[in-house]
Specification:
four-stranded antiparallel sheet, 2 helices, 30% helix, Immunoglobulin-like, single chain, alpha+beta, disordered C terminus, 33% strand
């Protein structure tokens, strides 16, 4: 039977303690995003030249993303981008993300859309020039 020296015993306890602390910290670092659940980050809404709106952002730790109850594709980095036309006035867009564990997060984007000024100017020109063969929608 070997006898252990007293000086080597505390060093092995010290090494074991350091290893245990590193293991706990690493495990916490790796599991923290899973504990946080899905996250949604939405960029400011952009209006394009043709009057449609672009809603974009990033969804992390997400298995599905819906915008106004319509599935939205995500890139591998979790980025999304949709371009849609909305009626003029106050608009609410609901983004809902769900992760693989069934947890969900919801973000609401609100904005006010206005009619394009160019449309009003062209309608005034048409009314000044007299009736035309164009059909107007009301």
């Amino acid at each position: 039977m070997k006898r252990r020296s007293i000086s080597s015993l505390p060093v092995s306890f010290l090494l074991f303690g350091i290893f245990a602390i590193i293991l706990v910290l690493y495990t916490s670092f790796v599991t923290l995003p899973f504990l946080q659940g899905p996250s949604i980050s939405v960029n400011p809404v952009i209006t394009t030249e043709n009057g449609s709106l672009v809603i974009s952002g990033t969804a992390l730790r997400v298995s599905t993303l819906t915008i106004n109850d319509q599935d939205t594709p995500l890139s591998e980095q979790g980025q999304f981008l949709i371009e849609r036309s909305f009626p003029s006035g106050y608009t609410v867009v609901v983004l809902r993300a769900q992760d693989r564990f069934g947890r969900s997060r919801e973000e609401t984007v609100t904005f006010i859309t206005k009619e394009k000024i160019q449309n009003h100017a062209s309608e005034k020109e048409d009314s000044e020039n007299g009736p035309s063969n164009k059909e107007t929608s009301q």
